Amino acid sequence: MSKKILIVGGVAGGASAAARLRRHSEDDQVIMFEKGPHVSFSNCCLPYHLSGIVESAENLVLMNPEKFLKMYKIDARVNNEVVSIDREQKEVRVKNVLTNGEYIETYDKLILSPGAKPIVPPIPGIENVNVFSIRNVVDIDKLNKFVKPMTSKNISVIGGGFIGVEVAENLKEAGFNVSLIEAMPQIMRPFDYDMVQILHKVLHDHGVNLIVGDKVSAFENNKVILESGKTIESDAVVMAIGVAPETDLAVAAGLELGATGAIKTDQNYRTTDKDIYAVGDAIEVYHALTKTQTKLSLAGPAQKQARGVADHINGKNVLNRGVVGSSVIQVFDYNGASTGLNESLIETLNLDLKYDTVKIIPGDKVGLMPKAESVHFKLLYEVPTGRVLGAQAIGKGNVDKRIDVIATAIKLGASVDDLRDLELCYAPPFGTAKDVVNYAGYVASNLLSGSFEQVHVSDVRKLVESDACIIDVREEVEYKQGHISGAINIPLSEMRERIGEIPTDEPLYVHCRSGQRSYNAVLALQHLGFKRLYNISSGFMGLSFHEYFNDQTTNRNIIVTDYNFK
Ligand code: FAD
Known about the structure:
Blueprint: E1 4-8, H1 12-24, E2 29-34, H2 65-72, E3 75-78, E4 80-86, E5 91-96, E6 102-106, E7 109-112, E8 116-118, E9 131-132, H3 137-147, E10 154-158, H4 162-173, E11 177-182, H5 193-205, E12 209-212, E13 216-220, E14 223-226, E15 231-233, E16 236-239, E17 243-245, H6 248-252, E18 276-278, E19 285-286, E20 293-294, H7 299-313, E21 326-331, E22 334-340, H8 343-348, E23 355-360, E24 375-382, E25 388-395, H9 400-411, H10 416-421, H11 436-448, E26 454-455, H12 457-465, E27 469-472, H13 476-481, E28 488-489, E29 508-511, H14 516-527, E30 533-536, H15 539-553
Parallel strand pairs: 1-2, 1-7, 2-3, 7-18, 9-16, 10-11, 10-16, 11-12, 26-30, 27-28, 27-29, 29-30
Antiparallel strand pairs: 4-5, 5-6, 8-17, 13-14, 14-15, 19-20, 21-22, 22-25, 23-24, 24-25
Helix pairs in contact: 1-7, 5-15
Flavin-adenine dinucleotide (FAD) is lined by residues 8-9, 11-14, 33-36, 43-44, 46-47, 81-82, 113-115, 134-136, 162-163, 246, 249, 280-282, 297-300, 302.
């Protein structure tokens, strides 16, 4: 028997559900309501309209109601807002937002995919500035049309999450003076503080006025006032401090919310009403690693959930096993990707988890190849099991491939030994014979088996301040170009002849450019009877990236004579 299925929301989740429903049945009636003027647009490409990468706002719209009808027999109704749900009668009330006329539509099954709305807090004086937020094509078109003719070029973006960073980058590329203001000490929470310093540097290098650890306290006429007292001229302000799930409709209908404030669903995305499903940014999801409910505002999960709902409505059990949260971003000439747990999430949630980390900077392809770049790669794994927990990768080249491998490994419950053994494809233009992921597995396996010990670049400042013995095993020419203040230079190539210069009565902290030569030095010294040896993971290059942004933007002591970013 044919079913009548209504969908609220016509973009990522809604449109995916509709298309999959049609693939299941030619007979079912599928009606998709969208309160805005467009269905199935690319939210993710919205920021790229500001720089002109996506030239016309119209190009952001991928499908229209006519195509939905002709190609998929789906009744997509734009400018139609679902204003209430009557669960008893199994019907919704719909308002045509252009005419204000209302009508009723009944359902057998109802799918909610209303998304999430930008949070715009009531900051004092907000009415004194031109404030924008970005959710859809109308918003981006409005912002673009406002800023392009501006004579002054000053724009502030508030919030350093994905949307804030992408908007800041694209406005900068369009020639504006962009301030990116983040209340927390760092942007982009999927990255740990040590890793995100690379992205801070990239934004700084490209002329974005990045301000972290400072909160907007008020707006005055075309000015953003920060808690520190700083004032930033801004003729337009983009609020990108986060999104809140659209739950009004669900709450009014008596559907239960979860602890996160998003709609609660079961493993098949059914709400507390068995005939109403919910997907996307509006729902909370189970995190497979933290074992807690969380919100995950990403397009991939929304579309997969929608597919799952369509399958479940058609008799197929989905039983999702939870998310691990994988994401990627481009920040000017760098790319950053992450998956699974990071250290700050483990701390914030106070997870009872013993873990260690590996930080390496291998090449993304053979160094002789054009466009070979370094990948800053951080792996988190459980101790002592070696279970892979998460990873972050940042570099100019292909970082997402590595993180995708780790995301897969996490989903399959792999350990660091599995990473070591993975057979990944190789030819010089694509990678190295032992891939970044293999290297991370090797280092983690070595650490787990106790073959050497390490400290991190985030520990180096304290080591310098306490006059610890730091040995730099790079060649003299490298040392002269920049080194850690107070470090002794004994190149690996001379180490065996100069062994008498190495102290035996104190801990030794050994580093090279990226951690590989110093690992060899540490092993050699261990074999020669030295004790209390620590490799400084990711070496001088890791330290340079780690220190640079804060060195440039605060008055602290600089602990290197110069930096090395290559
Ligand atoms: P949406 O796709 O937002 O769709 C919800 C729709 O429901 C809206 O159009 C809304 O108007 C409509 N609606 C709400 N209430 C009603 C109602 N009562 N009646 C009728 N219609 C209603 N994710 C990534 O994974 N990668 C990215 O690079 C990325 N970049 C992004 C960039 C930007 C600028 C934005 C805004 C988001 C980005 N996202 C990205 C997030 C991604 O777009 C969302 O996670 C995804 O679209 C969520 O799908 P959804 O169906 O839940 O909500």
